[in-house]
Amino acid sequence: MKQFKHINATSVAEATSALQDNAGVAKVIAGGTDLLGEMIYWSRPNLPEYIVDLKTIPDMEYINEDSSGLKIGALTKLHDIAASSVVQTKYAALAQAASKVASWQIRHMGTIGGNICQEVRCWYFRSSSNKFYCFRKGGLLCQALLGDHRYQHSIFGGAGGCVAVNPSDTAPALVAFDATIKTSKKSINAEAFFDGFTNTVLDDDEIVTEIQIPTPPAGSKSAFAKASIRRAIDFALASAAVVIAPATGSITSARVVLGSVAPTPRLVTGAGDALIGNSVSEATATAAADAALAGNTLLIYNKYKVAMAKGLVKKAILS
Ligand SMILES: Cc1cc2nc3c(=O)[nH]c(=O)nc-3n(C[C@H](O)[C@H](O)[C@H](O)COP(=O)(O)OP(=O)(O)OC[C@H]3O[C@@H](n4cnc5c(N)ncnc54)[C@H](O)[C@@H]3O)c2cc1C
Question: Which residues does residue 254 pair with via DSSP β-bridges, in sequence order?
Answer without folding.
Answer: 244
